[in-house]
Amino acid sequence: MRRVNPTEDPATRMLRRPAKTELTWTKAVAVGLGVTIFLLITLAWIPSYFTYWWSSRDASAVKTIQSIVSHIPGLKHHIIQPYTSTRVRDAISLGFQSTVFAGIIVAAYVYGEKRRRRLGQRGADDVKGYLPGK
After folding, report:
1. Average pLDDT over residues 21-26
2. This prediction's pTM
3. Are 113 and 102 in contact, with CB atoms under 8 Å apart?
């Protein structure tokens, strides 16, 4: 067992401590609350704000989309319909939401795998059937 130096700063001691401890229920609740707030902001508030922001600038958005499309070969004289702006807005919003949602799923998987390896538990690939003894 390592001896503790009482003259050393407690914060420095805490930062050098190995991070092999499990989450306590209070830390897990705090982390869960933080993740929930993050998800509410990124999956609800930001796309809603973006939708209203885009709608207030819809006329300039149609002109911008028209100028981008006019540089694509074969679409130089194509006229953008007014509803196209709404489709582009929704595609951007849905792409953002899907990326955040997929990121959370990947982060949860990576965290679970690291925890499983750290604790020395078997993975799902090791189990051959419903009853491992048979």
Report:
1. 80
2. 0.65
3. no
